[in-house]
Amino acid sequence: MVTPYGERVLDLVERIPPGQVMSYGDIAEYLEEGGPRQVGTVMSTWGGAVPWWRVVHADGTAAPGLVDRALPHWREEGTPLRGERVDMRSARWLPSGDFQQPTDLA
Predict the structure, then answer these.
(1) How confident is the model at residue 103 (pLDDT cuts 50, 70, 90)?
(2) Is 82 helix (H, G, I), strand (E, B) or coil?
(3) 101/73 Cα distance (integer angstroms)
(4) b/e map 1-12, b = 16+ CB within 10 Å
(5) pLDDT, tens digit, 9 for 90 and up, residues 26-62
(6) Helix/strand number for the chain, H first, E second
(7) If we measure between CA atoms, which residue out of 106, 100, 89, 104 comes closest to residue 29?
(8) Strand, coil or helix: what is 81?
(9) Which of 54, 90, 93 is nearest to 73 (CA)?
(10) How crowded is residue 70: how many other Cβ atoms within 10 Å of its Cβ?
(11) Backbone torsions φ then ψ of 49, nearest 5 degrees
(12) Cα dihedral 40, 46, 50, 53 sign
């Protein structure tokens, strides 16, 4: 059973537009709860039913072992890339509202 925090994470991931991404830390900051590791735990436990490839590390890399599965999704959606990683300056999605710009822009 998905936890309330997990539901919030998954709901936000479903809102990320095709061709854009959020980092694990972006999601935690937006939700004002948890951190990148907690978001990663949610994604590894329940993230298979949402567009998981739109959640990346702050440097634009996919979770360990997932780059080969993520690349086709990124290419299909037209996600800006730099080699086998997402170009975070171009692809980072920041929801409207009170979300503050992360300080770790890659």
Answers:
(1) very low
(2) strand
(3) 26
(4) eeeebbebbbeb
(5) 999 999 999 999 999 999 999 999 999 999 999 999 9
(6) 5, 4
(7) 100
(8) strand
(9) 54
(10) 22
(11) -95, 0
(12) positive
